[in-house]
Amino acid sequence: MKEDTTVLFRPIGQKEFELIEASDFTAFPPRLEMQPIFYPVLNQDYATQIARDWNTKDAASGFVGYVTRFRVRSDYLNQYEIQTVGAATVHQEYWIPAEQLAEFNNNIVGKIEIVDRFKHTESTEKHDNG
User: Fold this and answer.
1) Which helix or strand (DSSP H or E) is residue 101 part of?
2) What are the domain boundaries of the chain?
3) Which CATH class is domain 5-125?
């Protein structure tokens, strides 16, 4: 019987990419003290917008933005409400408290995939897929 899963996305910077890679692409790293919420987003366009427009301009992200795609057990996600933080059909995300991230990671099905990558350039429109 196939598990019911929800596809989510998350924009990340270089350091977070390296930590995910160290987990063999199976888990997101613990949040920093100043990051009380882990926020996976519901669509690739929103994750791309953040990775391209924010991460590439942020020194803490290494001036690189990645878009990850992963699947989470839907029955686990049902305990969280979808949060709309901008355009109703685009800017939607889950707010997972940092102390619940290990449990969230345990509910990821399969690997965390890198579906896009953006680097800081004169024009952040340039990117390479994967």
Assistant:
1) helix 101-106
2) 5-125
3) alpha beta
